[in-house]
Structures are given as structure tokens and as C-alpha cells.
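note to self: dont lose this again. the chain is below, predicted strucutre after it. 450 aa total, dont forget to put it in the shared folder this time
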Amino acid sequence: MSGSLTGRLRRGVDGASLSFVRAAFGLVMAWEMVRFFSEGWIEEYYLAPSFHFTYSGFDWVRPLPGPALHALFAGLFVACLLVAVGLWHRLAASVFAVGFSYVFLLEKARYLNHFYLVCLLAVLLAVLPVERSLSVDARRKRLSPTIPAWALELVRAQVGIVYLLAGVAKMNEDWLLRSQPLVQWLGVRASHPVFGFLFERVETAWVFSWTGFLLDLLAWPALVWPRTRTYAYLALLAFHLTNAATFGIGIFPWMMIAVTTVFFEPDWPRRIPVLGRLYDRAAPASYAVRPPGSSAGLALAGVWMAVQVLVPIRHFLYPGSVHWTEEGHAFSWHMKLRSKSADAIFVVTDPRSGETRLVDSRTELTPWQTRKMSARPDMILQYAHHLAGVYRARGVADVEVRVRAEASLNGRPRQLLIDPTVDLAAIEPSISPSPWIVPLEPLVRGASGD
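---
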């Protein structure tokens, strides 16, 4: 059985569908790079803040000076266009993968699931043979359009995991039984000139929540089965277009619309007259046929997929609600599942003199950084360590930092998020559960949001 599976994964297939994904990905990301310039995001998110929240192990990542950072984004825009047309693809895709991953790591407060997905897809497109059709490289190098089947299946599995785990993440009380946070988000859109009368109804939130849950959970198997594939894609198309129109969530819907086409037959772009003209109809005999996928490639693909499964489900190892503690929340495809409002005031104490000072993070952080940090325990801890370092530099050697943080999750009453008696300056960041996070109180029926 395993030998048969290996044989199927190593067989040659048409690379047309993967080449379409490559071209569409390049165009979508080129559009996103333009938006970084036109919306002023480079300045707002990376140059204006005096302090940046960093990911564990990447404290050394710092923004380039203004002109250099603008030049980097311009370079990423060019790399996206080269990826789209398939010119010097491996170099361009590698430059984009490294450059965008660097941007992603610059600011933890700007974590977005779809930016993480961009990083993953960029890496795959840089190492897989996706330039063998619909590309300048294929024409000038006379490349065979044949690719190993495992390369196609790897991208399919990557996209499928995003859908599946997004569906699993929705299997919680707030989403399925309270339609939260959709009740809140749709409610604020009640002034919509066309659909406002629907958004103000709780029933609409229920339809959105259960439809989203079922679509995400069933998307992968429905896309794999030929009999349901077209219907599943059309349902997902409507789903993504609705999300784009309702929530304005950037490039994510458009990227998913493009990459989900990878589930159709490998040669599907050649069957469409408009697209087919852009592809070579057949590989001339003089083309060098690519050999079957190597065992090393299959092994690396297996390792990649193991990581893509294990990292998102790590939050099950932590007690409590992941949407409250945030432990294991990032990189787990928990998309649009929580709405948290919070406030945090830091208390800095010199134990030798007994002097205590209240610190409002808004005096140093930008409003969007403050909003994100106040609701996320790991970022509160990071900022507490930052404050401790500031006061140690001023001569307060044994400084203590505590925080009074209160938060509301998905319409619940506000409660303490962090134990205010704990000296956070003495807590080292760890992957272990954090006992200094106050557990989420049980939901009382009839409370706010129900």
C-alpha cells in the first residue's frame, strides 16, 4: 500500500494548475505591496513605532532605516511581478519569501493569519517546480511542463489544512452556540445601505457562523472528491466574496480564491480557451522530461506537512480557552473567532525605596500596538520586561513590574486577565502554561452577548 502511494506521488503530472497558482499569487501579492505604499503602512507599522513586539527567538529582527525599508518593499513588488510572469522564478520567489518573512517578523502586534499563509506559500513556490508552465523561464529554457505529483499534492494539502483546521477551530461554544463574535461584528454594520437590515438580525449571525463552520470543515474532502469539487469551489467562492464585501479583510479572500483552484485537474487551465493560449499545448519531443519525484523530496514534504499539522494543534496542550490565554493561538488558523476589548495599566515598583509609578503604555506605544498588547498575555509580558529594562537602565536594579489588565472576550463581562499580584519582570517567557493568566470565568447565561 505504501509503495503504491509512493508510486502515485512520484508519477509525473501536468504542472499547469500549479503554474496558475504561482502567477495568481504573484499578482495578488504585487497588489498588496502597492497597498503598503498607498496606505502608508510602511511608515505606520514599521517606522513610526519606537518599540516593536518581537517573536520568541527573533528579538534580533529590527526594521531597516526608512529609505532602505521602502526600497525593500519596492524590491518585493518587482519580485512579485517576476514570480507572476515566471522570469528568473527561483531567484525572485526566494527573494520574496525571505523578504516578506522578514517583514512578517518585524512586528508581532501585526500578526495576521493570511500573512503567515503568504510566508508558507512563498516558501513552497520558491522550492517547488512551479515555473514549468505559463512562464518566461519555461519558454526560454524549454522546460518540460511535467512535475512530480507530490509537488501538486503538497500545495493541495497546505491549502486543505488551512480550511480544515479553521473549521475545527470553530468547534467552540462562542461560535456555534452564541454566534460570537459575529453578532457584534455584523451589528456594527447595520447601517449598510443594502444589507443593513439583515446584519442587525441575530439570525444572520447564526447563518454566517454555521455556514462558515461547515464550509471550512468540509472544504478539503469536498474539493478532493471529483463529484463535489465544482460545487465546493463555487460555495467557497461565494463564501470568500461575501467575506470580502462584508468585513473587508484585505487580500485573504482573493488569495484563497486563487490558490483553491489547485484542487481541479492538473491540466485545467489548458482547457479554458483564454488561458490555454498562454500555455504550450504539448511538450515538444526535444524537451527534457523531468524525472519522477525523488525520495528526498517526498521525505521533506512529509516533514513539512507534519509541522503544518502539529504546530496548529499545539494549543490543545494548554488549559483554558485559547482565545483567552492566547497560548498556542498564533499559527493555528483561528481566524476571526474572537473579539477582545481590554485595558492594561502597568505598575512599576522600586522595592528598596517603595516608590511606585503607574505607567500608561499609550505614552510609548502606538494606539494599535496598545490595543493588541492589552488583550494578549504574551505581549503584556514582553512589554513588562521592556519596562523593567528601561528602569534598570535608570538605576533601579531590582525593579518589579505588575499589571492591572481587564478584558472582555466575545461580549462577556470584563474580568481580570493577568494576576495583578505577580511580578512579571521575574517571569521568564516559556512555552509552558502560564499560571499568572487569570482563568476565563464560566459563561453566565443572560450575560452580555447572549
